[in-house]
Amino acid sequence: MADVMQGLIQNLVQYLIIAGLLLWSCYVVLRRFMPKTSFKWQQALAVWLANKRFVRLSGWLMPKAAQSGCSAGCSDCSVDSSKADSSKTACATETTKPNDTKEQPVQWR
Question: What is the pTM of this model?
Answer without folding.
Answer: 0.49
